[in-house]
Amino acid sequence: MIKRLLVIKIMFLLMCSSMFAQTDKLIYNQLTTPITSEYYHVPVGLCEDYPEETTTMEIIRKDFEFLKKHDIKFLRISFGWDAIESKEGEYDWLFWDDYVNTAVDEYGLTLIPYICYVPVWNSTGAKDTIFYWNYPPKDFEAYGDFVRALVNRYKDKIKTWEVWNEPDIWIYWQGTRDEFAKFIKIAAEAIRETDPDAKIVFPGIAYDPEFVLQMFRDYKLSEYFDVVNCHNYYETWHRHPIEEITTYINELHDVIWRYGNNQAIWMAEVGYSTFRKGARVSDSYSAYYEYEHTPEYQAKQLFKTLTLIVSTGNVDAVAWYEIKDLPPTDDVIGDTDNNKFLGVAYADHTPKPAAKALQFFNSLFSGKYKSINNEVEVDRSLASETEIQTFEMENGDVVVVCWLKTMIPGRTNGQKDGVAKDTRKETITINISKKLSGNAIEYDELGNEKEFTSLESSNNKTVIKDLTLEGGGLSIIKIKK
User: Fold this and answer.
1) CB atoms within 10 A of CB 417
2) Given the DSSP bridges, would you call strands 475-479 and 398-404 parallel, antiparallel or unpaired?
3) Contact at 8 Å (CB) between 283 and 244?
4) Which of 299, 320, 431, 316 is nearest to 375 (CA)?
5) Which alpha helices (DSSP H) does 24-115 contain, by range?
6) How far apart are CA 252 and CA 319, in angstroms?
7) For helices 245-259 and 209-217, what crossing angle results, to 10°?
8) In 3D, which of 181, 116, 190, 180 has the Cα closest to residue 149?
9) Structural domains of the chain, ranges and CATH numbers in brackets
10) Could you count the other beta carbons within 10 Å of the beta carbon of residue 15?
């Protein structure tokens, strides 16, 4: 009997040792710690949806192999309350047990899930056969019960929980603000009670920082959340130029500064589609230039977007939406066109250029860095359409990313078919107020490199001379210390 107990004890210790060794590889600490130091690093991952009715383990493994090949460490997913508890009090964990075990134990992926949507048996909109899932529940406490069961089941492998998704737009929440405040407070309390070590994520807003302001100021919900998530699809589902993403982030940062508690900020859903039909992209955006919303330009847009996000110094983690395009037969919520063409890979997992651009971005910005835009002066015309972002790496190297803005408000020139040729060129000079070695390499968004010689270095100054930027292009220059 003593021998048997000893064997059981050893097996238990080995199992625990294996589990902790695996979870030690996860990167939650890199995602949920607000930036406080001069130099910082922003991890970039991907998003994916897994509807139980159409997803197979073969598809899932192909996703995970894609992430492994492209050095992606974390993934945003969703747990569907409506699918797991389709009948009151009956939980179906089969699909998700396999998924979580494979993701965490086999592939070492850090999962950052959100929890949604209302099952038909508990929906106040049950008569709405299409949108029953976005109505407030009849029994709010039932959501708390589900959250407790979910968190308790996976708390050894998942350490962040986001409650709901895009509540600032009607398509994901058809209740009142009062109802939503009550709803997510119940969920947050359930998570804290079940796993005090977990980080609780405020649901990713679609576009409106005022929603977070109201929840924090008027409903006093800041104390319940460790992270605030926001989403962005400028130039796909929103008319704003991508360059305005920094204003959006900084507005949210200021809301947290005023009414929050130093929460980390995620942009854990951001993307750009490869769909267009003529000039039409969506109800909110039309293409002007012929290259917009093509796979080739998606790669450029991805690199631009990530550059702008990390330049703020206010975002702690980013997740691009999404791994792969959807098959034409799949049902989607909302826009049936763009939703099927947001992947960095095609539906069969063949990479688009954006996959390589993402991998290159993560490689180039793999260490710590800081924005040094305040140490840079640019000689350019008053009507210049250039965007320049400059970073100093912790080792002293400098990276300059620059382009001509694609979306210029007010520019139409009578062109309505979206096939305008972008013949723009601008020549600029960039003055960096620090002496560097003068050795530089120029890259494109895919990491293809060429020698760069238009550089002068003198006392306390480095000058990039006569750099010509072309419309639809992207220049990435790395200068050695």
Assistant:
1) 11
2) antiparallel
3) no
4) 431
5) 28-31, 57-69, 81-84, 94-100
6) 17
7) 0
8) 190
9) 25-367 (3.20.20.80), 372-479 (2.60.40)
10) 10
Buried b (16+ CB within 10 A) or exposed e, 350-377: ebbbbbbbbbbbbebbeeebbbbeeebe
> What backbone torsions phi and psi does residue 227 show, to the nearest 5 degrees?
-140, 145
Residues 362 and 347: their CA atoms lie apart, in Å, by 23
| Continuous segment of H or E residues that includes residue 142 | helix 140-154
* Tokens 């009670």 belong to residue: 193
Instruction: Tally DSSP H helices, then E strands, for the chain.
Output: 11, 20
Q: Distance between CA atoms of 398 and 429, rounded to whole angstroms?
A: 16
Gap between the Cα atoms of 358 and 347, Å rounded: 18
Q: 315: closest CA among 259, 248, 382, 362?
A: 248
Find the angle CA(145)-CA(151)-CA(155) to the nearest 5 degrees. Answer: 155
Cβ distance 212 to 247 under 8 Å?
no
User: Which pLDDT belongs to residue 415?
Assistant: 76
Identify whether the C-beta of residue 81 lies closer than 8 Å to the C-beta of residue 123: no
Q: Which amino acid is at 323?
A: I
Residue type for position 454: S
Please, what is the end-to-end C-alpha distance for the chain in angstroms? 67
Q: What is the mean pLDDT of the chain?
A: 93
pTM (predicted TM-score): 0.94
Backbone angles phi, psi at 178, to 5 degrees: -60, -45
Digit-coded pLDDT (tens) for 325-363: 998 887 777 778 899 999 999 999 999 999 999 999 999
Task: Concatenate the DSSP letters of all residues of 100-120 into one string.
Answer: HIIIIIIT-PEE--EEE---G
What is each CA distance from 467 to 426, 456, 463, in whole angstroms?
8, 12, 10
Six-digit token string for 361: 């971005």
Does residue 13 surpass a pLDDT of 70?
A: no
Helical packing angle, 295-311 and 353-364, nearest 10°: 30
Q: What is the DSSP string of 368-401?
A: -EEE-GGGEEEE--TT--EEEEEEEETTS-EEEE
Length of the chain: 481
Tens-digit pLDDT profile for residues 57-106:
999 999 999 999 999 999 999 999 999 999 999 999 999 999 999 999 99
H/E segment holding residue 17: helix 2-23
Q: What is the pLDDT of residues 375-407, one digit of tens each?
A: 999 999 999 999 999 999 999 999 999 999 999
Instruction: Check the CA dihedral 402-404-405-409 and report its sign.
Output: positive
Contacts of 142 (CB under 8 A, 6+ apart): 88, 122
